[in-house]
Design brief:
This protein is mainly alpha-helical and 201 residues long. 58% of the residues lie in helices and 0% in strands. Helix 2 runs parallel beside helix 3, helix 2 packs parallel to helix 5 and helix 4 crosses helix 5. The longest helix is centred in the last third of the chain and has 37 residues. The radius of gyration is 20 Å and the shape is globular. The relative contact order is 0.13.
Amino acid sequence: MKKEFVSELFAGDDDWHNNACLNEWSRDHGATYAAGCRRAAELLIEHIDTKGRDQDVLVYPVVFLYRHHVELALKRIITLCLLQIDDPDVKGPKAVHDLNVLWDHARKLVRKVDPSFPRANHSNTDAVIKELIAIDSGSTAFRYDRTREGEPSLTGISLINTRLFGEKMKAACYELDCMDSYVAETYSSFLDVMSDLRYQP
C-alpha cells in the first residue's frame, strides 16, 4: 500500500465543506479531471457575465481550461475505444497535446468500435477544434504570453467574447459527452460479454 502523503499545503481542515475529496468517490479520474477543467471555465465565464469585470485577465484561464477539457475528453474516448479493440496494430497517438491528432484518432477509433456511429454527430466539435488549433496548436498560447522563440503568443487577435466562446464550447462539449457516453456504454457491454465468455461452463 502506498504511504499516505502528508502536507500542510495539501491538507484537510475543520470546515468540511471546503475539503475536496481525492481518490474517494470516483475511480474514473480521467472523467473527473476533464469535468473539473470544464466546470472551472464555466464558473469563470459566469463571473464575467454577472459581474461585468475581470474579462481581460480571466479570458486566458477560460480558454486554456476549456481547451484542456477537450484534450482530456478526447484522450479518454481514445482509451475507452482501445480497450475494446482486439488488434495489437491499432494504437493510440503518442503523448501529444495536438488536438488535430487526438480528434482524428478519436473519430477513427469510435468508428472502428462501431462503424454505424453517425458522422454528423460532431459538427460543432469539428468546427471548434479547427479554431482552437488555428490559435493554439501546442496548448501554450493561453498559458504563456511568449512563444519559445520569444514572440508574443496571441498575435492577430484582439477580442474574445467569453459568453459567445462559452456557448460554442458548450455545444462542442455536449457532442463530446455523447461520444464519451456511447463508447463508455459499448465498453460496459464489451466487459459483460468478456465476463460471460470467461465463466461459461
